[in-house]
Amino acid sequence: MRHRQAGRKLGRTMAHREMMMRNLVTSLVLYEKIITTAAKAKDLRGVAEKMVTLAKREDLHARRQAAEVLTDDKALKKLFETIGARYRERNGGYTRITKLDYRMGDGAPLAAIEFLGAELTEAPKGKAKARAGEKGDGDAAQKSGRRRRRRRSKRGGAAAEAASPSGSEG
Fold first, then answer.
1. Which residue from 3, 17, 44, 111 has the fewest beta carbons nearer than 10 Å?
2. Residues 142-153, mean pLDDT to the nearest whole number
3. Are 33 and 95 a contacting pair, CB within 8 Å?
């Protein structure tokens, strides 16, 4: 029984789990919104909130404590100069978790975790970038879907060969 056991193991050793959380919180600070599994997002929320609370303190000791967790100097600088200043007057609740669809490969539930107010800083710059992003995403999704369908029909074995009119693909 797991009575009074906080946190999740996430199928990893303790060292791997700690390093994964460090990498996730660094990415969250740098990009302000990341997509990961729902379980990882729920665990990440506590670490991210502690980092913002440290950034609000603005002293050398807090900076050194945050440097022990974050794996990138740019993330540390952004945390203390931008994110800490943004939430100076707010007492907790700096992140939002939004449930998304399920992952294609293994069906794991996905979630987006973001800092509140991050949606205000993400405005696309210019029409060219917005158009390029729309075109690129659709083409890649269609191509990968075609590849997936082709692979599945090959895996079918005798049933797939009997179903196909030509008898063999390839």
1. 3
2. 50
3. no
Residue 6 has pLDDT above 60, yes or no: yes
Task: List where CATH 3.90.1030.10 sits in the chain.
Answer: 1-123
Query: What distance in Å separates the CA atoms of residue 39 and residue 25, rounded to the nearest whole number?
Result: 14
Rounded to the nearest integer, the mean pLDDT of the chain is 81
Sole residue written with tokens 């303190």: 57
Sign of the CA dihedral 70, 74, 75, 81?
positive
Q: Which of 114, 140, 127 is nearest to 41 (CA)?
A: 114
Phi-psi category of residue 164: left, alpha or beta, with phi > 0 → left and psi -120 to 50 → alpha: beta
Give me the amino acid identity at 125. Answer: K
Q: How many helices and strands in the chain, by DSSP H and E?
A: 8, 3
Confidence of residue 34 (pLDDT cuts 50, 70, 90): very high
Structure tokens at 64: 């050194």
Spell out the CATH class of 1-123.
Answer: alpha beta
Whether 119 shows a pLDDT value over 90: the answer reads no
Query: Mapped to the 3 state alphabet, what secondary structure does 55-89 carry?
Result: HHHCCHHHHHHHHHHCCCHHHHHHHHHHHHHHCCC
- In the numeric block, the tokens 């990882």 are attached to 40
